Amino acid sequence: MAGGEGDHRRRHHDGGLVPLAALISRELRSEKIERPLVRYGCAAQSKKGEDYFLMRPDCQRIPGNPSSSTFSVFAIFDGHNGNAAAIFSRDHLLNHVMGAMPRGLSRDEWLHALPRALVAGFVKTDKEFQSKGQTSGTTVTFVIVDGWTVTVASVGDSRCILDSQGGEVSLLTVDHRLEENAEERERVTASGGEVGRLSIVGGAEIGPLRCWPGGLCLSRSIGDMDVGEFIVPVPYVKQVKLSNAGGRLIIASDGIWDAIPSEFAAKSCRGLPAELAAKQLVKEALKSRGLKDDTTCIVVDVIPPDQPAPPPSPPKKQNKFKSLIFRKKSQDSASKLAKKLSAVGIVEELFEEGSAMLAERLGSDTRSGQTTTSGLFMCAICQVDLAPSEGISVHAGSIFSTSSKPWQGPFLCVDCRNKKDAMEGKRPSGVKVI
Ligand SMILES: [Zn+2]
């Protein structure tokens, strides 16, 4: 009897046996339908009370539709000259980004549309905050995790790093600090700002490079209406797809990054669950520098569904902190290649753009998504309806218009067009230009 049962079991098993080659090819073809688990934790030590954060798991991709897939948002807002801009951004930015997403997209289309919606949402939030007439400004590092795809948008210097399962530590943001970013210094100077150090009595210059008027060390932020419009809210955006081994994101304000280097941060908390990892990083920062600044840290683990433990320490090897080794997705063979890379644990870069120019960031768009259901045009930034005569192409009068058609969308309302001009150092004319 027992033998019979064994035969039965073996037969059953044999019937389900798949040759290894087929298994590998199936793995390579896998669309990774299984979604990873997302575990997260946050820790903070306050000095000035100007750091704020947002952790919102399980946001509905299609609002009001519980059966739509979900995504998670993690963000840090490091305020300066007061906390109003940080609080305003925490409370409104997510809605403004989602408000800029076209309706009726598939999940892939939705991910593809995110970088542009992030730009619109950041600029809209800045515009709305400035209209309140309050001073203060904030950095923003805004991270959207949807399955294995991570999209990061940032202004300022609250860095986000990725510790991928291969043991590679990479930066998903750039620091918009005048001191460290020559390209941004050039942009600010060309738009009418002055960049220099603080002068003390006797003419000696001290401290980091700052932008004048205002004396801000950052070249991008939300708020800061008293500093100058060339301090722009246009975010650097990077979108990557993790391998199916997952990875760890560390998002933190400069209280962490001024105290400990990125690679040290990643290494010092490996193997700890997210909540403890965040605490550990704050502890390391305080140990190294004391509490000099608000220090806030969010750790997000993207974990394969069959491995619900925190990511283990990767094998010891020489870790060089280097810029991403990701492969660009551009050719038609890229998709096949991407799956192979994913299978061997390499992160795929889907999108990267850091230009401060709205004409470049909003792109040219002839899709019907630009018009509302009523057939009207819509401002690409603030999403208000425009009469056909009101829309001003983002490309009109732009030096980039040589390759784009000034009569093509996306379109801006007069207000947003004036803001765009001001950000590029042109005085708002108040005259409608078509
Ligand atoms: Zn507008």
From TrEMBL:
Superkingdom classification of source: Eukaryota
Molecular functions (GO terms): metal ion binding; protein serine/threonine phosphatase activity
Keywords: Hydrolase, Magnesium, Manganese, Metal-binding, Protein phosphatase
Record's catalysed reaction(s): O-phospho-L-threonyl-[protein] + H2O = L-threonyl-[protein] + phosphate; O-phospho-L-seryl-[protein] + H2O = L-seryl-[protein] + phosphate
The EC number(s) this enzyme carries: 3.1.3.16
Domain PPM-type phosphatase per the UniProt entry, residue ranges: 32-302
Cofactor section: Mg(2+); Mn(2+)
Family assignment from sequence similarity: Belongs to the PP2C family.
Protein name, per record: protein-serine/threonine phosphatase
Originating organism: Dioscorea cayennensis subsp. rotundata (White Guinea yam)
Gene of this entry: LOC120251626
